[in-house]
Amino acid sequence: MNATAPQRSTRARLGMAGAVFLGAVLLVAAWTKAIDPNAFAEQITAEGLDGWLPATAVALMALALELFVGIALLLNIRRPWILIPAALLVAFFLFLTGRAYVDDLRGIEATAAACGCFGNLVDRTPAEAFWQDSLLLVPALLLAFFGRAAASALPWRRLALVGGGTIAGLWLAWNAPELPLDDLATRLRPGALTREMCAGRPENVDYVCLDALVPELDDGTHWVVLTHLDEEEFLTGLEGLHAHSLANGEPRLWLVSDVEPEDLNAFTWQYMVATDVRLVPVTLLRPLYRRLPRSFRVEDGRVVETINGIPSLGGVEEHLATTR
Predict the structure, then answer these.
(1) What is the pLDDT of residue 119?
(2) Same structural domain for residues 199 and 251?
(3) Is the dihedral of CA 30, 183, 172, 55 positive or negative?
């Protein structure tokens, strides 16, 4: 009996380590989804997972499960009714990344802008997403089954924390679009470099960076407005942007969109736009915003300010005058 006690203790520690690690990974993934639920809903639609319910409802249910299981594992609750859903989550994640990996090997373009369960914040190829998720999730899941204690009374205090944490996470996801989380939820934030805002991989022919499409941003001060050209808020402020460009106002203004060239031509003719418009692929634009339009000020290729909506150019000029 004494000889087996250390072995049981080691198994229990290994099992707890696996559970805690897996729980932490699930919670990081849940965080990236909760702060940008609209992007998560878009990914669900792109993956074809919203057949019976709206994508938003599917997103909230998936997020609730991920939060519940992740917090429970982090608190070392390793009952079958936690481990079995955890195994199903891992299997589902690997199914999605594996499907994308197979499609990529067959030359089929990915349906989503980001690969894996970490949202827009992590840029990974389908192969990287599948193998990294496999190495992160599968060993930790297997370890979580080791050294489980015999069935006893339910850990009510820890379960209360699980429930409270899940509710808090869902509250965050529900309110996130109205909260000032854009710099956390996207790759566009003060300090970012335009030469590092890229889509694809350097070894691929479709690799492109923002500084290649708008090379003028590398020198001087500019405002960049990210938008779809039919956004109501953008169209409402278009007259002011147009007047600023006609007056050769400083800083220089750029419109960046992912529309098709024919749509840009129609837009230009309809509104007689004087502001420079540059087209970028959706894979480059989508990780830079939660909601459009979104604008940012660039000085010599470095982002120094971001705002939601369209900049008030008069206020911007006054601000620049006071900081020079």
Answers:
(1) 62
(2) yes
(3) negative
